[in-house]
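pasting for ref
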Amino acid sequence: MRNLTLAALGWLAMLAGPAQAQPATSSTLLEAWLAWQQERQASQAAPFDWAYSFALREREAQGLEQRRSRLVAELEVLSNTLGLARDSDRANALTDWQDALSSLPVLPARSPERLGLPHLASDLRRNPAMVDIASLGTCAPPAWIETWTLEGVKRLSWTPGMSVDQALEGLPAGATRGIDRVTLITPLGKLHDIGIAAWNHQTAPLAPGSRLIALLPESGLGGTVEGDIVNRELAAWLATRLPGDDCTIRDVE
């Protein structure tokens, strides 16, 4: 659903109360989305694509920098260990992960959940107060999907109908060697474990802006203290990243 109908906008406006009684700033996230959408319609801007629109809860904005710093530190330990063992290929891959994380700005970010207007309007009990929201934003769907594997971090061109299998086939064989599962992060920030071995194979479509993470093998690096932290925390942190590059963000005053 890219936009709400005028009738739906009117219904939501009635829920919010008479126009003359509205405060200067929105009191709930639904009201903020409604006001922003009306502005866009008045200026004839493109409608929101709700699959790529998001908000960041204030409580989740806190600690993002510390979480990233810990991941970078654990990856540095792992890559140094592999370097000493002369496993240069995997050491370089984890250094690539480390560099990619370090280069990503902590903010803007998104809460990894559905917080768009249609979702909130379908159940007003989910509508958070704006005092609990740090920012909201929207992105144009990108032309890529992103992979984090033992071949490093790569962006592949997205094609209509693209699946997890097709994305992995576009990578070198070493990208998922020894891996039974990958984690899919959807543009909405949802995490899904996808089986890729013969015994647990699953198929799943990939929307543009999706991310695929091949976690460290539990019988190897994933079995270490550092690797276990990376496997538990990396996908969760990447789920806070924006689902595109061409984005508009509104910070809450």
